[in-house]
From TrEMBL, chain A:
Upper lineage: Bacteria, Bacillati, Actinomycetota, Actinomycetes, Micromonosporales
Name by which UniProt lists this protein: Sugar ABC transporter permease
Organism encoding this protein: Micromonospora inaquosa
Secretion signal, residue range per the UniProt entry: none
Record's GO cellular component terms: plasma membrane
Transmembrane regions: 12-34, 72-91, 103-125, 137-155, 192-215, 238-259
Length: 274, 317
């Protein structure tokens, strides 16, 4: 593109400024996390004697093992089921085009901009009636429902773009709808399913509101909910708070760096379609 | 029969895309339709039980005075009247609207500025690094952003350290605890979270613009400003619409960041509807009023988002 050299340079400078601003909070937290316990750290100051042991203390204080297990259990409860039933519904609405499908789809769209705050109070009483308060089910079940508008929207968008001839051809070959779904459609939908899986994982792992409302015990919460509890407990011990927060972030960061390309693709597509 | 419809379904006119079935096909379609419903049903049930039912209950609660335990008393629209007349609640709704400036306008404006200068981020290593870093705030929980920035904006934090270093120690303060600066400080946290996303979305949109448009503009003697107004803005309409939609919802429905960084204080300076719903419902046991506020919040989101959708998608088929 024929931008002048000066323009390209200013662009770069802006980008680099943006990167610095994005990274500074993390660096500042790291510098605080490495100060000796009990001192009052200041903004950004590399410690003369970095206390890496703080992370070990934070690991114990935050009960990281239990937190990881809890978050993984919640993700395992939410993500596969959400992705499966959303894919099926997307197939039904987008490929099979069930009669009345447009109405149902409209009903799903209704939930697309719904703030979770709008339903959290009745959900509390609903979970109470079901006897599920303070269990992981209280997070898992509502999240599956709350993800449906976006997930169905997403999968339907994929399936409406798959030529119907494909289904027709499979039918002529005598395969049942179930076979058609699993053998033909699901393999073709793999990229859409992969992106959806990534988004659901991220949103579940980071879900805060439902976790603090529906579950008191922080070892039964999501990572974000546990982090909130950790702040409540260690808010005054800044060194430990920073160490613990960074520690709690680490699993997400590792997963993000490994699947970085897929994540970014999913996030871009996710926001464009949402 | 399928040749007429299948060639290039666009996904938009699926109503018309269905073929006129012959008799033989009709029975097959009917059976498929029945089976098709089985595919839609699980998602629909989960949605109905855990979203639609609570939504209807929120509407119902909003018409009652209820403490969550005892007998509910029908009060009609009184709770809504309270939402729209109580000065505290109006202030709280106002706070959310102020946050839109920080969560939406600043990231979109800065994103546009960067995008129009960068035009495209290379696909090489530099581009990958840039994208990865700018997406970090999207990947971490908002709670973590709240904790990090509470530290940055505290009395000993990086922001004040930087101010003192350049001789502006006089303005240094506990930004989140100060009556005048708390709300903008919370806004800055949101801006930080959303800036990277907006920038990437806008740069991505930018790279799809035909360079010939810019060449034509330059040949016509357009300066950078004219070029921005005549080429960049109209071409990015859809991307800007997406950014505004995502960020405005984030501002109006904000909860995590505020809960962590200020708990709504000092006073009510940073209390937002989401936090107030939580408080009213679970600490003050005013479930009816909390529900009315929830309904108002929901409508507020729709009132902001629907026009944007219409504007940004409307004319493009």
């Amino acid at each position: 593109m024929n931008l002048s050299r000066r323009e390209q340079l200013t662009g770069r400078v802006f980008l680099i400024a943006l990167i610095v601003v994005t990274l500074l909070p993390f660096v500042s937290m790291l510098s605080a996390a490495l100060q000796p316990r009990g001192t009052v750290p200041s903004g950004l100051e590399w410690p003369s004697d970095p206390q890496w042991g703080n992370f070990a203390d934070a690991f114990t204080a935050a009960n990281m093992g239990a937190l990881l297990r809890s978050s993984l259990l919640i993700v395992a409860g939410v993500v596969p089921v959400s992705v499966l039933i959303a894919t099926m519904a997307g197939f039904g609405l987008g490929q099979l085009r069930v009669p009345g499908g447009r109405l149902v789809f409209g009903l799903f769209l209704l939930g697309l901009t719904l703030p979770f705050e709008a339903v959290v109070t009745p959900l509390y009483y609903q979970m109470q009636d079901l006897g599920l308060l303070n269990t992981r089910w209280a997070i898992i079940l509502p999240l599956i429902g709350l993800y449906m508008p976006f997930a169905v929207f997403w999968m339907r968008a994929h399936f409406t773009n798959v030529p119907v001839e494909l289904s027709e051809a499979a039918r002529v070959d005598g395969s049942s709808t179930w076979q058609l779904f699993w053998r033909v459609q699901v393999p073709l939908a793999r990229p859409a399913i992969a992106s959806l899986t990534i988004l659901m994982f991220l949103w579940t792992w980071n879900q805060f509101l439902l976790a603090i409302v529906l579950v008191d015990d922080s070892t039964k919460r999501t990572m974000a909910g546990a982090l909130g509890a950790f702040q409540g407990q260690w808010g005054t011990d800044l060194v430990l708070l920073c160490a613990g927060s960074l520690l709690i972030l680490t699993p997400t960061l590792i997963v993000f760096l490994i699947f970085q390309r897929q994540f970014i693709k999913a996030l871009i597509q996710g926001s464009v379609k949402g | 029969m399928t040749s007429a419809l299948g060639s290039a379904p666009t996904g938009r006119d699926d109503r018309r895309a269905r073929p006129t079935p012959t008799r033989a096909h009709r029975s097959r379609w009917a059976r498929a339709a029945g089976i098709g419903w089985l595919y839609v049903l699980p998602a629909l049930v989960m949605y109905a039980v855990f979203v639609l039912r609570p939504l209807v209950l929120t509407l119902q609660y909003s018409l009652y005075d209820w403490n969550g335990i005892g007998v509910a008393r029908w009060v009609g629209l009184d709770n809504y009247l309270t939402v729209f007349t109580d000065s505290d609640l109006l202030k709280i709704i106002g706070n959310a609207i102020v946050l839109i400036v920080f969560f939406s306008f600043i990231p979109v404006a800065l994103g546009l500025l960067v995008a129009s200068m960068v035009r495209r981020i290379t696909t090489g290593a530099f581009g990958t690094v840039v994208r990865t870093i700018l997406f970090l705030p999207q990947v971490i929980p908002l709670v973590a952003a709240g904790i990090a920035w509470s530290w940055l904006l505290s009395s000993n934090g990086l922001v004040n350290q930087a101010l003192r270093a350049v001789g502006l120690g006089g303005v240094a303060r506990a930004w989140l605890g100060d009556f005048d600066t708390a709300l903008p400080a919370v806004g800055v946290i949101g801006a930080w979270v959303l800036l990277g996303l907006c920038t990437i979305l806008l740069v991505t949109g930018m790279s799809k613009i035909d360079p010939a448009l810019y060449e034509a503009a330059r040949l016509d003697g357009a300066g950078p400003v004219r070029e921005f107004l005549a080429v960049t803005l109209p071409s990015l309409r859809q991307e800007i619409g997406v950014c505004l939609t995502v960020t405005i919802i984030a501002a109006l429905a904000s909860f995590d960041i505020v809960y962590i960084s200020t708990s709504g204080g000092p006073g009510l300076q940073t209390t937002v509807p989401g936090l107030e719903i939580y408080r009213l419902a679970f600490s003050q046991r005013q479930v009816g009023l909390a529900s009315a506020l929830a309904v108002v919040l929901m409508l507020l989101v729709l009132a902001c988002v629907l026009p944007i959708q219409r504007l940004s998608r409307g004319e493009k088929p």
